[in-house]
Amino acid sequence: xxxxxxQFGNFGPVTFVTMRGIGNExxxxxxDPGVAVHMDGIYMGRPVASLFSAFDTERVExxxxxxxxxxxxxxTGGSINLITKKPDSEFGGEVDxxxxxxxxxxxxxxxxxPLSDTAAARIVVFKEDRDxxxxxxxxxxxxxxxxxxxxxxxxxxFDLGDSGSLLLSASHIxxxxxxxxxxxxxxxxxxxxxxxxxxxxxxxxxPMGPFSGIPASNNYIINRATxxxxxxxxxxxxxxxxxxxxxxxxxxLLSATFEWNFxxxxxxxxxxxxxxxxxxxxxxxxSALDLAELVLTEEAQQFSQEFQLLSNNDGPFQWxxxxxxxxxxxxxxxxxxxxxxxxxxxxxxxxxxxxxxxxVDSESVAVFGQGTYDLSDTLSLTAGxxxxxxxxxxxxxxFQFAGRPYSDPVGDSWDELTYRLALDWRMSDNVMxxxxxxxxxxxxxxxxVAALSLGATTAVYDPxxxxxxxxxxxxxxxxxxxxxxSSIYHNKYExxxxxxxxxxxxxxxxxEGATVKGVExxxxxxxxxxxxxxxxxxxxxxxFDAQVINGVQLDGNQVQRTPDxxxxxxxxxxxxxxxxxxxxxxxxxxxxxxxxxxxxNRNGGFAAPGGSDLAExxxxxxxxxxxxxxxxxxxxxxxxxxxxxEVQEGxxxxxxxxxxxxxxxxxxxxxxxxxxxxxxxxxxNF
Length: 686
Fold this sequence. Notes:
about 675 residues, mainly beta, 22-stranded antiparallel β-barrel, 4-stranded mixed sheet, 1 helix, globular
């Protein structure tokens, strides 16, 4: 079952997670995500760190709305915590192999090893390879949207008797190949005279009409140095790029979790260290001409320490109190090469003709507490409080078509007190009503493209705040055959952070405010002994307050990455066979409404100012057929995803302004969700 009002995707090396309209709005090292992603309680600071395999996961916890009074880092939109399987006292494991479309081959394995009466280990490995599903018409060119992923995870647990436990964990993920790459959504625009954008050797947009036998219906660009012509193909999963595109992402996570139980309380320590980095090479002229290459690099190291004291009794008052510390050092650079930019590099004696980025040190300290008191057998009151102090400082550095490189110190600090109040009423053993009011805060950040020495004034943007009200019901009815949960919410944001691509690259701004309100429904029902249904519905109304940003009035615009309607429906039927084996058929349908991917809500095509950042609505249908041997030793799964092969626009970013392929806002870059794919998985449990 899909979680309503949540969007998940990636654009190149960066992951985007959005919940109730709030997500990652600064893709550089200078910002923080609005939805916090944790792995076994360790906050993952950089968006690239979210791209890890969820294999051997015990459960996924999804908390919607402002978070902070329980654990981890502040988040205004929500929190996702992946809980992996831990070692136990039984020897065993599981392996599976999957083969499918585009020569998809994946191996996964998990092994649980008891080491003694008090120690055990669990080791997980995976390897995945797949050809790209985006074709490239240039001979020898790379094909995007492939897979080349390798990973290992290990847990080592120690039982310290009745009083405590210690868990040591390590994970390493490597993702290579070409990876997710954008296509150019709009045609190369024509011009009545043609233009030389960047100077010799440069390139020009051609006049509309025939050129060297090209039909007048096509738009094209010309490399004036060579006379070469390139025509843009707007078909999905089709491109013509001459450069060798690639990616290389790595993630290393080390953690230690120590728990000790006293008579009436427990102590918990969670220590984490994370390293993540990526290097991405992208063809930024989106053509067979050798004009522009974007090289993105990022390196980050983070350390976090959390201490918790928790109540450990059966009394009417249950509580948690804690301290949290987070420190991150990160660097990020965006560099442009090839003919449009190499001429500037040679003229000014620099490595790259255009280079923006810098280094950021982030530090966060917080103290938090939350308690729940049973006012009666059916009524409980929860109150939570958190004080947070954040600081970001660093240096923006680079070269922006100027006569010298720049290096500017930037930074600021912020602090905030947030709180939560909630009331739970258990109407019966099977029905609970709840209501809550909470405030949220997300640290301010740094625009790494801002060159103060060149006159920029937006190097630092402000924190984001939210007041959130939620009312809902959780119920289990019809003797457990029906589970129905529903909520309504109203989130009022101040200084809402959002990102646009300006002249020099991604820049974050603060809107005056925005309101996001909606309804969410989740249902699971056993229609018969063998047939179950699950469904979800998210209805969202989002709108910016009145404000003008970059000459655009935001008043009433839909908040970015927030479709008005999402819903899903799943059907699962089980058939038992006489030999103890079984068959399961699973059908999944989901719908996602139109999505604007920037606050500007542009939908005028490439000829209009700013072009378009609207992705059309789409539906998705998946089918899965399982066979289980007796005792489920041999699971086999055949699957088809995106059964109708519908083109699904997965992400849109307006490119850097000076590239100027579109209608004044930079090129319209788009990625697509995968086309129809099939796979066959064979597993063995022991």
